[in-house]
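Bit of a strange request maybe. I'm writing a small parser for structure token strings and I need a real example to test against, not something I typed by hand. Could someone generate the tokens for this chain?
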Amino acid sequence: MKSGEINIRVRYAETDQMGVVYYANYFVWFEAGRTEYFRQLGMPYNEFERNDIFLPVTRAFAHFKVPARYDEMVRVVTDVTSIQEVRIAFKYEIFRENELLVRGETEHAFVSKNGKPVVLKKQNPFLWRRLLEAAGENVE
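Reply from user aminoacidic:
Good idea to test on real output. This should exercise your parser:
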């Protein structure tokens, strides 16, 4: 799979007094993009949870170029940039029409419900292979 995409209309509650999106909301949109990416792969996030695999954020970054404003339609494009046995990384781009507003990244660890690191390849080889295939990487 190349990219996952989701369209979001900016809600009033997501803006500040100047009518622009408050910066923390872009990270919420990254999550929406990531969730939709998994759904478009046919592996919704709750499938990970049913298999005792959780994905807490270990690193997050955003480069803000142009603000989004109330009632605009934005498009979040999500890609996997790296898959390792104990972590996965994503890249996000948020557009208004064809104008790039924000570029960001998040990295997530694979952990169990009690927060212990999980080697996904061993814990769930089926999900591991599906993620590799989705990212276009060679499946062993």
